[in-house]
TrEMBL record:
Organism: Streptomonospora nanhaiensis
One Pfam assignment: Polyketide_cyc2
PANTHER family: QUINONE OXIDOREDUCTASE (PTHR44154)
Chain ranges of the Enoyl reductase (ER) domain: 10-322
Residue stretches of biased makeup (Low complexity): 348-366
Molecular function, one GO term: oxidoreductase activity
Name the record gives this protein: NADPH:quinone reductase-like Zn-dependent oxidoreductase
Top-level taxon of origin: Bacteria
Amino acid sequence: MRSAYIEALGPAEHIRYGDLPPPRPASGEVLVDVAYTAVNHVDTFVRSGAWRTPLTFPFVIGRDLVGTVAADSPPAGGFVPGERVWCLSMGHAGRQGAAAERVAVPADRLYRLPPEVPGAEAAALAHPAATAYLALFVHGGLRPGARVVVVGAGGNVGGAAVVMAAEAGARVTAVASAADAAYCRALGAEAAVDYRAPDLAGALAALHPEGADLVVDAAGRNDVETAVPLLARRGRMVLLAGMATRPVLPAGPLYLLDRTVTGFAISQAATDELAAAADHVARLAAAGRLRPRRVEVLPLSEAAQAHRRLEAGEGAGVRFVLATGVGESAAGSARSGAVEAARAGGAAPAARPGAAARPGSADGADLTNAPGGRGPDGAAAASLSAMSTSIVDQSPLFEVRAEIRVAAPPSAVYTLVSDLPSQGKWSPECRGGEWVQGEPGAVGSVFRGENYRAQDVVGWAPLVRGTWHTEARVVAAEPDRTFRWMMLSHAKEDQESIWGFDVAPDGEGGSVLVHHFRMGRATAGIHKIVADLDEEDRKRFIAEWTEKLESDLAVTLSRIKDVIEQA
C-alpha cells in the first residue's frame, strides 16, 4: 500500500513516499481504507523528535484520518464494512500513523462520520477542533453564560473555540489581528480585540470589568501576566501551545482569588475524552456551524512538501490535507488545492439557531440524584494552582451516552423526547411534571419535574430517596435534531449538569436516537452526598452511579422505542 513514512527521526526530507506492507489488525482493531489525512504541527514534532513517543520504523506519519471501514475488516466495536469513519489519534504511543492507503485503527479511537461533513473538511477539523473542545469543556469547565476570552481566535484551534463557546451559551471575546475581527465576530464572538493593541490588558479589562471566567490561549503566546489579573475569582487560563515560551507567573493575583493556570496536550487525552470531542465536532460540522477556515488538499505523495510548508509558517489559517486517492478522495487527489473551504476572506459557519451546551442525558433529576462518570484519566493537566486529589474534583465528573435505532422519522422522535412532561412513560426516575415558564419546549423554558428513587438504589450512599422535585431550563431545541436541558440548583442557578437527546436519520426511513448526560464540575448536591465519605467510598459511589446511569440510559431508550413504534 502507498504510504508516507520515515525510517529515522529528522527533517521533512526524511519523509518517503512508497509501498509498505498492509497492516495486520490486532484484536479490537478495525481496518480502514483512508481517503484523507491531515498535517498537524504535532506531526512535525514527532517526525523531528521534538515530541518523544515510542516509534517503530518504518513509521507511517500522521494523526488524523477520514475513510471507510474496509470490506475485509474484522468485526470490532460494532463497525461494519463501508461505514464512513474518522480518527484523530493515530501516530502516537506506539501506534502507526494515518498517512497510508490503509490503516488498522483501535475501535475505541474510531468514530462514525455523518454524511453531511465533507471528508477533507473533517480531516482538517479533527485535531484543532478536538483540541478546542478539550480546552473548553474538559480543562476549562465551560458553562453557559461564562465570560470567555480566546487568544488566537483567527486560527484553526482558536476559531473552533469561538464557535464552540458561543454555541454553549458563553459570551466570547476574541483576541486576534485587526484583519480577523469581522471573521471572529461572524464565528460568534461578541467583541474582538487586536492582539497588537498598545494596552491589550486595559482593553480586555474594559470589556470584562467583573473579570473573565476562562481564558484559552490558542496562539501559544502564553501571556500569563496579562491573563491572570483579568480572571474572575476561580477563573481559569488554559494553555495548549507554545512549548518554547517562558512566561512570568504573577503568583499573588493567582492565589488570592483562587485562579488557575492549567495546560494540556491532546496527545495525553483519554480515549473517552477524544470520543466526546469527536462527537461534539461531528455534530456541529454536520449542522454547518463548524468548518475549517481554509483547506488546501495535496496528494499523499507531497507529504514532505506539506511538512516543509507548515514548518515555514505557511499554515497560518490554512489546513493542509493529504488525499490518498482512495475512496471519496479519488476524484481530487491528483491536484493541489482540490478542496477549499475558501473562507480566508471572512465568511463564517452557518448561523446557529440557539446556544447548544455540551450534551447531557436522561431524566429530569437534579444531581443530588446525579449519574456517574469519571474524570480525564489520561489528561495531562499541569495546574499551577493547588490541585485537588479527589475524584470528585475532576472535570467532567460524569459524561455518558447511549444510542438506539427507532423505526420512526426524526420529526416523530423529536416531538416525543422534547415533551418533558411525558417523561414518566420512559424515565426510570422522572414521573413527569409541567412547564412552569416560557413557551413549552423552547430555549429558555423551565420544566418542573417530579422524581422518585427507591431505597435500594446505591443503597449505602446518602442519596435523596422517595419523591422530590427539580427544575430544569431548556438550553438547546433544534427541531428534528437536538434537545437539551440544564438542571437548576435549588436557588434556580445554572449547574454544569446537562441532559439531552440527539436524533438523526438512519438512511432507512428511521432514526438514530442518542441520549447524553454530562456534568462538568460537581454540583453542590454531589458535594453534599460525598461530604462524609472517604476517598475510596467516593470512588465507589462514582463507579456505581456510572453503572446505574448506563443502565438507566438503556432502559430509557428502550422504552422510548416501544412508545414510538407501538403508537
